[in-house]
Amino acid sequence: MLEKHLRTKLVDKDLLLMTHLVLGYPDFETCRKTVGEMVAAGVDLIELQIPFSEPMADGPVILRANQDALAAGARVEACLDVAAELAAGFDVPFLIMTYFNIVYRYGVERMADRLQAAGIAGAIVPDLPPEEADGYPEILRQRGLAPIYLFSPTSTDARMARIAEIGEGFVYCVARKGVTGAATTFSDDLAAYLARCRRATRLPLAVGFGVRERADVEFLRGKADIAVVGSETLRVLDTHGVSGVGAFLRGLIAA
Amino acid sequence: MDSQGYFGRFGGRFIPEVLVATFEELDRAFDELKRDPAFWQEYVDLMSTYSCRPTPITYAENLTRHLGGARIYIKREDLNHTGAHKANNVMGQGLLVRRMGKSRVIAETGAGQHGVATATMAAKFGLECTIYMGEVDVERQRPNVFWMERLGATVVPVDTGTRILKDAINEAFRDWVANMDTTHYVFGTACGPHPFPALVSYFQSIIGVEAREQMLKSTGRLPDRVYACVGGGSNAMGIFQGFMQDDVELVGVEAGGHGVETGEHAVRLAASDASLGVAQGYKTFFLQDEDGQMRETHSVAAGLDYVGVSPILSSFKESGRVRFESATDAEVVEALALTVRKEGVIPALESAHAFAGAFREASQMSNDEIILINQSGRGDKDIFTIADAFDDPKWRDFIRRKAAQYDA
Ligand SMILES: Cc1ncc(COP(=O)(O)O)c(C=O)c1O
To which CATH superfamily is domain A2-250 assigned? Predict the structure, then answer.
């Protein structure tokens, strides 16, 4: 379902934009307003991260946001309520991103039911590799949710092919080694890697980790289907507030 | 894509995609090393020339008399170079790093013991070294930081999360995902993603192999019970492995902190506060809240102050092969004082948990029974922490005078 939606969008646009925010950071009200700015700026899909105390794959910016959200009292149930509210209120697909312990403690089936009821389109769980799936992708798929998997520059072709088989919606291509938030070199190497990703799957490709400015987005045009702006949006939120986020995103995608 | 590295329902490998290739490389290197008949001897030779292996067992005659029950023996891991069992794991992984041809090592450290051991290994093997250490631990273990830096390591204080061991582990992983081509992560305990629990236990098994033989030689039989403290579980796994197939009761002692009922402790297996979860790359019992957020832990011993525990020990808890107990900070300080006075050996605060657990039971046992305690490390190098734990007024005066000299 998500893939079909993206395909339809890709008829008119050659590159979609996905943004990210941490639920409860700095508070739920700011999250609501930020999403409003994102949608108004023309963002195509939004990743909502449920904070976790041990976000192993995240760099300093998102890590702090996770901690601050938890310190401000963001509980999982409240995050899911707000996610449901946002999904009902805005006409873009929302994805849940979180670490596996949050899903595991909630119960994989119970979480999938909850996401389905909330009108969420899919989920990204970066510390749940295919080897540990244990029924997870099927449980999501049965409820019309897309289990989104990741490729990395260290994934072999054979491995990419197998990941592509269990993933749905799109594949999230991590642009480089390392955690979120650090700089990425948008180079021939990256282009070659993305060509390898393209050969491995028919699913749309999203590229994230280090996408910060207009030139990065332009680089991805023609090589990928979705540009993901994560840490940089948070940085802008921290320095320029909610309205700064809208201006920043418009600057990224203005024709 | 089958899951691997499970012990019962515990363990596994929950890692980001970018690390998969690195772990597969590590799997292969570890397999090769286990299959190489010359490797174990190479390891034993290194440990007998660079560290103090085999470490002796000591008959604690005075403690035995004082407690009036079972005969007490102590396995002396404190006599290792750098003062703890951590050296076994670190030197073993050092040999592995050489085989893999990597030029840099990183490690997390809680008490600082594993950090010092890793920095020592890096100095000896000519490797670049970065140690991640929670800010709280940097504060309470300054002397270890001093030595790590003298040994050429870069010590990075970690100011995120609860600023202790688990946060240092997260930070080490963040380094590794960016630098895996040149870098090996020397994991310090029998936790983390597969194959670390098995890999660390493999090197630490040298403790149990020696201890079994030594007990047979000096007492003519096996001990009735073996005690070890449990942080991540590596020294416990090390000594327990020597007695797995025997009719020997194995007892793991966790950090009771201010008491299990206060919530300020690090008891994952001996009480029901912990629950099954997945964090730091593996599945085990974690001290966490209903949502799955990790809780703060407390122990007087930094090396036991950890939210998770070895998946192998979790499986032994479930099978009943190992019994788990806890000892409070107060009991531990008392056991430490008694051991120092009666035997002239100085256990680390971590190790003193095993002593406290054993003392509680020894007096109930008969004098033809034998117990063996693993003294995982020495306490004299933790003089600042131990002096505070003893609340020693003369030490405090000394520190005040010393500080005044710096200001003069
Ligand atoms: C002396 C000593 N004993 C025990 C431990 C706890 O670790 P483990 O449970 O892995 O043996 C530590 C950890 O730093 C230590 O320094």
Answer: Aldolase class I (3.20.20.70)
